[in-house]
Amino acid sequence: MMPNPTEPVLPTHDDPVMRTGSEVVGGPAGKRIRFGPSSAWWNATRVLILLAVMTFALGLVQKKPCYDGAWFGVGSQYSKVCYSDMPHLYQGRGFADGAVPYFEKTPDENMEYLEYPVLTGGVMYFAGVVARELGDDLEAEKKWFVMVNALIMMACAVVVVVAVARTSGRRFWDAAIVATAPVLALNGIINWDLFAVAITAVAMMAWARKNVVLAGILIGLATAAKLYPVLLLGPLFLLCLRAGKLVDFAKVTGAALAAWLAVNLPIMLQRTPDGDWKIRAGWKLFYTFSQERGADFGSLWLILQQRGQAMDIDTLNAWVSGLLIAMAIGIGALALCAPRRPRFAQLAFLIVAAFLFTNKVYSPQYVLWLLPLVVLARPRWRDVLIWQACEVIYFLGVWLYIESYAGGEGSKGLSQNAYHVVILIHLLGILYISALVVRDILWPDRDPVRRDGSDDPSGGVLDRAPDVLAFVPGRRVAWSGRGYEDDADSLDNARQGVPVGPRGAPGDMPGKISA
Known about the structure:
By secondary structure, the chain is an all-alpha fold.
């Protein structure tokens, strides 16, 4: 039976885990279920927002032991697994003294200036101003700094959930996977990553709605908050190349560059007494710091270093860059040679996952970069929960490992060998979900999003667009208006709207290519 394209995809009908779990509350949604008007107060969006707020609130409860004093102890913030950068950086980066980021030095001898991109620095500075106004002393100010930032990050979490719901087309209930994610609760206030994740999620929503310039502006702003969003331009280039949408790619790239320059140039450039312009040292630190740091927590390179395979910085950077480039080439080949053009969210997830897999450091909150992308790329509760289980194990392991040497005399924690196992579990989790996404690209009939006849809900101008360039062995693949064709004349037929027969009929699973 052909699915109704106006009705949402119900998780209890579509997802095996949700279908089984629904038995506890009476079973899957019935055939007579009716969908109320979108104007109804208690609609899906408000349910998702409530779930996100509840999940985030549970994360704040989990951090309560640290809020009550463990943040400022010797090692209990690690043994209680409630560490956050926020209270430490309030004083360590000069916000307690009202220092202006990038223009004034920090009191930390090991970090001369703030080591964050400008928009994230702006959020930190704003929270510092509020904390100084509300706090009576330094300890109170630190707590206010955490709470103000926590409220901002909670708002960002809500934005992410709503953006994912509105990028998913008929599958807006997939956003519940984000809203109830354990990693959202555990990592939400470790750092300010949710700010960049929220802007990136809205950028993807804008692209899905064919607001190309707005999507570019938001990608530029997200890159001014964290570096990783610029990676999304790579998949967009490949997909636009295959679909003949390079004008749209030029628009999104130009808008991204303009937005990034608009917020960075005022801080980046400094006029010398001689009247010349130079790059401000405070602005540049984020980029030089990333380049000059060695192998750090959570990375494959740390395992190699601690097992006697230490490398100097130049060699390490060469290996990191080489491996990332090799993975990017593989993703590019997949984008151009897959039997059906991959979905934007699939390639976006793969390139960010490749970046994290090869990076010199993996902080626990980096999992938030992948969370919305995973849900858009592979919306299956079982697979996402398996991946999150690996990340929760890493979350617990990294703090207990730090506790083993930072907690003072007599402290207990995780041994180095055990920590290496934890890192490998985290890396295997990324490989597991990535392998499933690659499988869905190579065999589109396995893709949950495309099983009902959809093409690419997150694709915007790419959705149902015909291919003009592809390197599928022995065939060209293009959208004909009713389905995908795979013969040598598919492109011409697609442009002319020629029917494709049973494979393109409504309700089929287009893209299933026989051997």
